[in-house]
Amino acid sequence: MTDTVTIRSAEPQADEVLQVSFSDGHTTGYHFVWLRHDLFFPTAQGAKSGDATPSFPDAPGAVTPRHIDTAGDTLAIDWSDGRATRHDAAWLRRHAYDRTTRQAARHRPVLWDSRMGNGLPALGYDRVAAGDDGRLAVARQVRDYGFARLTNVPTSPGTVAQVAGLFGVPSQGKHGPVSEIKVDSAFNYGGTEVTEFLPLHTDNNYGYYPPGISFFHCLAANPGGGDSFLADGFAIAMALRDESEEAFDLLASTPLPYSIQSDDLDYRAHGRTITLDGDGNLAGIRFSDRALDPLDVPPDQVRPVYDALARWVRLLHDPRFQIRYHMEPGDMSVYDNQRILHGRTYYEPGQGLRHMQSCFVSRQHFHSELRVLLKAVGAADADLWLAEGARG
User: Fold this and answer.
1) Residue 75 half-sphere exposure toward CB, CA atoms < 13 A
2) What distance in Å separates the CA atoms of residue 46 and residue 56, rounded to the nearest whole number?
3) Least packed by Cβ within 10 Å: which of 63, 113, 222, 223?
4) d(CA 33, CA 39)
5) End-to-end Cα separation, the chain, in angstroms
6) CA distance 337 to 205
7) 60/78 Cα distance (integer angstroms)
8) Are 145 and 112 in contact (CB under 8 A)?
9) Euclidean distance between CA atoms 119 and 326, whole angstroms
10) Residue 123, strand partner residues
11) CA-to-CA dists, residue 74 to 22, 86, 91, 95, angstroms
12) How far apart are CA 262 and CA 387, in angstroms?
């Protein structure tokens, strides 16, 4: 599909659809009501506020084309009510909404498992800080694989927020944008000390809108363990669907309760383990056994949902889906918190300080920066629709 596409023919059909054939060989239909969209919402045509009142039709099918002209690069329609619309051929082709075109406009993530190992190249901080080329390389890896790894990042406290700021506006938490994780801190989650094994999870599932892109920075490493491990939630979801479509459908349709409570906070939210978009494509993952409350589902769903969760957790901790690595000072992981599940092995607290800082950027900020960077280099994939995450 190119911007030089032209219209070969446009024929009205009996079902209030205009069948349009393009010079690239594609033929698709546009409903009359869809073609008149700008007439219903005048501001879309540049009208100033107050110039007109939107006139969405009570009967969308009451108006039909009176004259159609496909000369040049424009579809010009004069309607039976005396009004007119004009659509650029290339714009019309890009906005076709048949299934083939809509699916082609969706980004396809690269699913991975343990066979990838550490094959995804780490990116040096100097390249990322130097300009758009490095930022684009990181953003593309996160878009395609769900994560990226940086090396040689300065280990001064707060650097994680500076790096996150290259990709959007750092999100504000209860104590600011940066979270501290130290072995000698008072950090405690549900009675589990920070040195204990942390199973694979996504963060802050108890929030109405879980964090989007996580930046996780190592300032000091403990040699006594504490290996990080990641898994691709999208790949695991597909494996679950292959194993049991019933379990997949349950986790994609059943909101589960999450919470975190202490003396000074009480967050609670429901969310589906697997979020799909309107076409059934994977959009997001939300799961943490540490924050999962007892099920809040109808009685006849309790056993089936627990059975589905058992399948999910078994796949989640199957080594064939995991990659592992030890973070050293100056390493930073950047990952999609609504796709990638992360965890950490146990480590001995007496063998040295382990100091990590983390920061989040919203998906919409991150994706906006990515699109701007792609457009700046004229990339063909700049206009793809991206997975919108674990929304409910």
Assistant:
1) 26
2) 17
3) 223
4) 10
5) 34
6) 10
7) 16
8) yes
9) 15
10) 150
11) 12, 7, 9, 14
12) 33
> For residues 346 and 198, what is the distance between their CA atoms, to the nearest angstrom?
7
Length of the chain: 392
Q: Single out the residue of 93, 331, 313, 370 nearest to residue 217, CA to CA.
A: 331
Residue 307 is inside which H or E element, if any?
A: helix 302-316
Q: Which tokens hold the place of 98?
A: 């048949």
Helix (H) / strand (E) element for 235: namely helix 233-243
Residue 331 has pLDDT above 50, yes or no: yes
Listed residue (383, 392, 387) closest to 254, CA to CA: 392
| Cβ proximity of 68 and 10 under 8 Å | yes
Would strands 123-124 and 147-151 be described as parallel, antiparallel, or unpaired?
Answer: parallel
d(CA 308, CA 301): 10
Query: Is the Cβ–Cβ distance between 341 and 143 less than 8 Å?
Result: no
Tokens for 16?
């209030």
Residues 146 and 213: their CA atoms lie apart, in Å, by 9
Q: Is 138 helix (H, G, I), strand (E, B) or coil?
A: helix
Q: What amino acid occupies position 80?
A: S
Beta bridge partners of 216: 333, 358
Contacts of 366 (CB under 8 A, 6+ apart): 139, 142, 167, 168, 212, 213
Contact between 160 and 357 (Cβ < 8 Å): yes
Give the pair of three-digit tokens for residue 39. 């007439």
- Please report which confidence band the pLDDT of residue 351 belongs to, taking 50, 70 and 90 as the band edges: low
Instruction: Give the range among 8-17, 31-40, 184-193, 225-234 with minimum mean pLDDT.
Output: 184-193
The secondary structure of residue 226, as a DSSP letter, is -
Average pLDDT, stretch 1-30? 90
How open is the CA angle 33-36-41, to the nearest 5 degrees?
A: 110
pLDDT over 70 percentage in the chain: 89
281-315 pLDDT, tens digit per residue, is 999 999 999 899 999 999 999 999 999 999 999 99
Q: Tell me the sheet residues that pair with 249.
A: none
Which residue, chain included where needed, has tokens 């363990």? Answer: 225
270 forms beta bridges with 257
Return the structure tokens found at 253: 């349709």
Helix, strand and coil percent figures for the chain, each rounded to 5: 30, 30, 40
41-83 pLDDT, tens digit each = 655 445 455 555 556 666 667 788 999 999 878 999 999 888 8
Say what the pTM is.
Answer: 0.89
